[in-house]
Amino acid sequence: MPQTASVPVLLNQLGDRLGHDLERFQGRLSVVPGRRDGGAPWDVGEADILLTGPSPAWAGAPREVPESWGRGPRWVQIASAGVDGFPEWLLRDRLVTCGRGDAAVPIAEYVLTALLLHEKRIDILRPDGPAAWLETARKLGDNPASGTLEGRRLGLFGFGATGRAIAGRARAFGMRVLALRRTGWSGVEEGVEAASSLEQLVKEADHLVLAAPLTPETRGIIGASVLAVSKPGQHLVNIARGALIDQEALLRALDAGRPGFATLDVTDPEPLPPGHPFYSHPRIRLTPHICWSGPDVRRRFSDRVRENIERYLDGRPLLDIVDPLRGY
């Protein structure tokens, strides 16, 4: 990759979706196309800046720094909030920024949809004729099965941009919000109670939402001992990373009714192998990692990339820098 002393080289592994956004930097950047979904995305040549995102290739990166990484870029912008799908050496000795909060709105809407479906159960009410319609109405009228979000306790494990977006929408439904932050609380969040421990969170939550990044400390944190003290009948929702949960322990816990149901948008691995119990378990709603999808997510990321490039070229601090020690 040719490079001049005055113009940084940017390796774009995110394809055409950033094409027009990068054109505005013509003359200030040398933009080189690359790939992240095949081959070796760590072959970065002399690039100063790398735009990349999660991919199977990155997930299979070597544990040690490959020779083709060289000194590595000075700055890596990742198109996701989590950085667990990248090798540890990518995070070292450089600026790494992520897409923190870009998908907070669609994820929050996914969570509220899951909570409402669990309480209202309208997705299973499908009368196939007048007689079934009348019988369903009679049964529900005599013994209402429809629940409510009002007054329910929402437990949030993780309270970053996504957790805040979920909490705001949950409060609009009259839910009581209890949240646990691993980094502690710097101030009071309106309408949010701080949990003192994970044990308190799982004991008290009617709906427990996992919204924390995957790090060595959080891998498998929802295991047998945690599930054993969860509130009976609890609804567990995972929109973060599948590896936060011990999946074998979850299957045993679901059969015991603690929790009572799980909505899982993420699993470990993705997809699960054929015949895995999650596909057919009556107490699991499984979706294929789509909670992040929304009409404005790419626009928000594009805005972030433009802003961070401007800041980089001007020598100003970048937005949403990843702490390599914490892993998020």
From TrEMBL:
What's an example of a GO molecular-function annotation for this chain?
Answer: oxidoreductase activity
The alphabetized UniProt keywords are:
NAD, Oxidoreductase
Q: Which Gene3D superfamilies match?
A: NAD(P)-binding Rossmann-like Domain
Which intervals hold domain D-isomer specific 2-hydroxyacid dehydrogenase NAD-binding?
Answer: 145-290
- UniProt xrefs under InterPro entries: D-isomer_DH_NAD-bd (IPR006140), NAD(P)-bd_dom_sf (IPR036291)
Q: Which Pfam families match?
A: 2-Hacid_dh_C
Designated name of the protein: Dihydrofolate reductase
